[in-house]
Amino acid sequence: MDKVDLELDLKGLKCPLPVLKTRKAIAGLASGARVRVLSTDPMSVIDIPHFCQEAGHKLIARETDADEVHVFLLERG
C-alpha cells in the first residue's frame, strides 16, 4: 500500500463537494504530499482527474471497489 499523508473520506457527498473538499484539503499540503480520496459520487471519476489536470496535481491511481467506492491516490503538484 502506498504511503499517504492525508485520507479524505468523502463517501455520500454529491458533486461538486468531493472536488471542492479535495481542493481545500490539498491546498494546505506540501508539494509531493499524497492524498487518498474515497468517494461514492459517480461523477468523481470524471471530476477528480479533471481537477488534478487543471490544478497541476498528479493522479497516481484510481480504482473502484466492490462497494462502488471510488478510490483516488493523488500527489500534490
Automatic annotation (TrEMBL):
From the broadest rank down, the organism's phylogenetic lineage runs: Bacteria, Pseudomonadati, Pseudomonadota, Alphaproteobacteria, Hyphomicrobiales
Span of domain UPF0033? 8-32
Spell out the PROSITE patterns in the cross-references: UPF0033
What the entry lists under CDD domains is as follows:
SirA_YedF_YeeD
Q: Name the family.
A: Belongs to the sulfur carrier protein TusA family.
The record, for SUPFAM superfamilies, names: SirA-like
InterPro entries, per database record: TusA-like, TusA-like_sf
Protein name (record):
tRNA 2-thiouridine synthesizing protein A
